[in-house]
Amino acid sequence: MRPISYRDCERNITLEPGTQNMKPETINNNFKTEEYFVNMGPQHPAAHGVLRLILTIDGEIIKNVEPDLGYIHRSIEKMCERDSYQQIVHLTDRMDYLSSHINNEAVCLTVEKALEIEVSERVKVIRTIISELTRIASHCLWWGVMGMDVGALTTYFYGFRDREMINDIFEETCGARLTMNYNIPGGLMFDIHPNFVKRTKDFITHFKTKLPEYDRLLTGNVIFQKRTKGVGVLTKEDAISFGTSGPVARGSGFANDVRKRHHYSAYDRVDFKEALFTEGDSFARYQVRIMEMWEAMKIIEQLIDTIPEGDIKTPTNAVIKLPKGEYYQRVETARGELGVYINSTGTKNPYRLKFRSPGFSNLSVLDHITKGAKIGDLVATMASFDFVIPDIDR
Amino acid sequence: MSYFSDIYNGIKTLLTGMSVTGKYFIHARKGSLTQQYPDNRETLKMFDRFRGEVVMPHDENNEHRCTGCQKCEIACPNGTIEIIWDRGIDEETGKKKKKIDKHIYHLGMCTMCGLCIEACPTDAIVWAQNYENSVYDRTKLSKVLNQPGSKVKAGIED
Ligand code: SF4
Ligand code: SF4
After folding, report:
1. Does one domain contain both A50 and A167?
2. Which value does ipTM take for this structure?
3. Which pTM was predicted?
4. Domain boundary residue, one of A23, A48, A68
5. Dist. CA A44–CA A50, nearest whole Å
């Protein structure tokens, strides 16, 4: 179709007789406009990865948003059916790569549940600390990118600066910065590095001075608030019926933190508040994540001084065979609830393995809440959703 | 009235934000994280657990610890390790014994998961900390880890 030109619009002005003195706005109402579609992505700088959004728009008003997936599909679930249970763990690093440790933990917890083995207290505490560090690192990156999406480039550097310290902690203990693969079914691959405790404490002290700066730089900024307040409002009812989870749901007042409701690892013994806001707009989702960073620091502080002694690995067979049956375990990643479903027929590979990823359900609500909004608001809403595309498109 | 208070608030928050950025502008040298790579190659040291690539250490007699048990090959999720083995005669007992001919490692396929090193019963393979792995031809990424003419150290059994 030929793009609509200014000429076409001009030709379509139909002036009724006796309307020569019409006000300009009434004349404009007689312009015939047509809906058209544009692609946002898959290589769009504001689209956080290879997500293609097919936008039907009328002028700048969004009529319909249709996400089109498949650009980074690696068939991880199918590959899991081929791999042994130890090998599955490293594939989950590549799903939501910003919460890779938490993904690893989810698979390990499922396998441990099926084998009915209990890991030592030390493993539970270390897993919890690293999970919370992962959450802070993920939210730091999101904070930087969120600022950048609404036009503030400085946040990007500050977010990455603080994330760098956590990456160093991971690199020293696990050997890798992003795809750590530190968990194995039955425990951890090796013990924490002797410097781990000191570095983590240093980071907490450092970050406690930096998080207020985040607030001063971005949270209080008028432009930022105008861009996010009242934008992309998700009601509590919709949050529940679309199956959203994580900060997206908690920004709408839907309290569903897996760490609080279905304890796993060491979350039963720590005291923390569930970040909950009721406005449901992009700013509420922003506030949830900022508050989660404070709470994550609180959790780490409660555990870091009292890491109990104990075994790092509970021995398993070299070839793990799960008993026949179905197993499910959920964890709270930085983006929401990740569920791992394993259907085993008693062999060394799963018969079927399904990940319930948080991003996929959260994406489904995007069309619903951005109808009638402007394109700029869609970008701000997407930023507040914090999509990681490989997590949506496994 | 709200028009003027909006302007006032806008300028105030702008200045609050700029006080943060201004602080870093003035103290630009302090606490900066930027590394001047590749100028700092000599001083840049990776952490000792850093996963650079899998290597097989040899001692001064050109002896390694690999018995050719193939456990690493089985543990690897993506076929990065290939072991070509042979049967040699054990000098002491005179019996036939498995030994490696070639321990092939395709660096280009490795996901640095560490499962092979976990699986090795004799600690024959370890992580190296090098991080500059780019080459012009990808066939150069396939390496034979055991050096030519090397043999397994005496007394290593799996
Ligand atoms: S690190 Fe992982 S991918 Fe690489 S060779 Fe070892 S087992 Fe294979
Ligand atoms: S490197 Fe280790 S696991 Fe691999 S064949 Fe040699 S001894 Fe066996």
Report:
1. no
2. 0.83
3. 0.86
4. A68
5. 8
